[in-house]
Amino acid sequence: MPSPRQRQLRTWAFWAVPVLLLFLPLATNAYTQFIVNGMLISVLVTLGFTLVIGNLGQLAFANTAFFGIGAYASAILSAKLGLPWIATIPLAGALGALGGFLASSAALRGIRSYYLAIITLAFGELMRWAYLHSKPLTGGTDGLPLPREAMFGISLSDDTLKFYIFLGVTVLLVKATLNLMRSRFGRAVMAVRENEIATASLAIPTARVILVSFIWSGFVVGCAGALFARHVGHVFPESFGMLHLIASFAMVLVGGLGSVLGAVLGAVLLTALPEYLRAFPGMEELFFGLIVAAVLVTMPMGLASLLRRLSPIFVERYYREES
Amino acid sequence: MNKLTSLMAVAAFAAAPALAQDAEWETQGLTDDAITIGVMGPFSGNASSYSKALIGMMAYYDKVNEEGGVHGRKLVAVQEDTACDSAKGLAAAKKLISQDEVFMLQGNSCSGVALALRPTIEEAGLPWIVAHAVSDSISDPLAGNIFHGVPTGSANGRAMAAFVLSKPGTENVAIIEHSNDWAHSYSNPARDYLKEQGVEPTAELTMERGQTDATAQVLKLRQNKPDFIIAALYEAETAIFLRDLKKYGMGDIPVMGTAGTDLENTLKRTGDFDTVKNYHVIHSYVDNLDGEKMKPWGEMIHKYYPDEELSTFSFVSIGSAEALVSALEAVGPDLTRSKLIAALEEVRDFDTGILSDPITWTPEDHQGVKGSAVAGFVDGEPTVLKAWGQPY
């Protein structure tokens, strides 16, 4: 268990990262800033995913559906209803949460394991079908462009402005998720993962735990969808298919299943890696696969386990620590 | 007077950094012996087969370079992968523009990626010639620096309808299509053209993707007795539709297909010449792929890319590369981005010798290729046609 000093150090370390990141735009160009912005979005996607698949232990793959719901909600609210994009972020999160609620209904009916995996995969594909075939609303295969917009007199196509907004949203949601996981609820989530029947026998409402986990996961990933919509400026159905799901799953596994720190590490590494591999046209997929396989073989608990070995301040224990 | 001179000097001094920046931007990616061109394409991922569409353009650059370049400058391509994904495509564009600092951009398959790139590239202002993606929305509404160097979806759709109406006595036209945007990108402009010519389709039918039988559609068409059928279907469904047309004794009705199908591939699929003898497809070139007029282009590609297996895609970007080189030559050695854009807007009726229709770019219209030829079997041989019964 970390000592009080180490816990304090952990708190400082948590806040030091975003504070240092505030200065990052001084060292980036439009391209590298764009990649960094993509990393922040991936952090949220991975965070929402790992909550359900890692912490709650449910083999559910509706993550990409939540992401698409958030992105399309943001684009539709901006383009069709004229809402400022920034106002669409919580609304996209709310619709993502609604998606989470729908996805949890299968789990609440006792469907588990591979069956839940297939049902949630089908949910994702159903959503993609809906984006394709609701042309008046979603633009169909042509996608839906977000209107050009400015904040504080700066165009929202500016990657630096987007970075500060994305960073704010990411820090807020990561901190909220950490707090949630360190609460009584977080402990119940992990109890469900370990043994659902035993948890229920302790008068913990497991159905509610499952429901809230899916809803929170949907909210976080829905918000990420809204950020993604502004990130690319034009949402297309193809962005929310199996490839995205596989990439997100790889981020969860490489970072470390069920770890918030792992979600961050996995997202950062696997968003940056394809960009470094641009130098090997035609070989990117091969190198990407090899690197992911190498990480998983040498570190089955992900990159977070490596940091945990280096210092106890990286240990994530979601029980109440004595002060 | 002295005061005025001083004021002007101060103004000039104040404006100097901005002017210098403008001058620097105008010649970014340019040296005395090289013009760097950012080439984006799907080199990985599910749609990587579309990267073949950039081969012709790259081979043409190599040919120009071997002949000494343009005003002594070699065309240096910097390739970036879009993986046919909008986020990856944007990263590629931003890398080329802000990190590699290329002079201009050319290429792009995947209309979705090109549409996502449009605002970024329009804002960046450097010239961009789209050499494969066909969506009209990439270059319409007009963006000052974006040029389309291949027939757009609407150009192809209108060419289909024009060919149909070029058959004497055609009054009764039917349309069969998939219920997706790909099909609509052909069928809607075709409908518009027919309407302009006073022709209303007498039957409009849907055949879904993956359908393995077209009996219902064919029986419906038998009641209508169309003079010509426009089929906006993928190749597999086209083969099924043609097979069923013949089966129900309607094999003599001519059918007009999209650029998404290939004449000889369709024949291979049906395995019966009688089913395709009246089938026609959009074909953007002056000759069959193995025809005499295409032979030099095929040889050029093989000279620089010996392993390239030639297909329709291999040639598609050559025309726009030729138009680019012609504009670069017209500008002269004192090249800037603005001068190149101005020169591209002066390209008129440029005969590429490979595309069936010439390229014309004006300040008001950057969609350069307005039509397309058609391929069909004439006396059992695949033949490129300008209009019904008129070989190209």
Automatic annotation (TrEMBL), chain B:
Leucine-binding protein domain: residues covered: 35-376
Keyword Signal: yes
InterPro entries listed in its UniProt record: Leu-bd (IPR028081), Peripla_BP_I (IPR028082)
Signal peptide: 1-20
Alphabetized UniProt keyword annotations: Plasmid, Signal
Family of this protein: Belongs to the leucine-binding protein family.
Protein's name in the database: Amino acid/amide ABC transporter substrate-binding protein, HAAT family
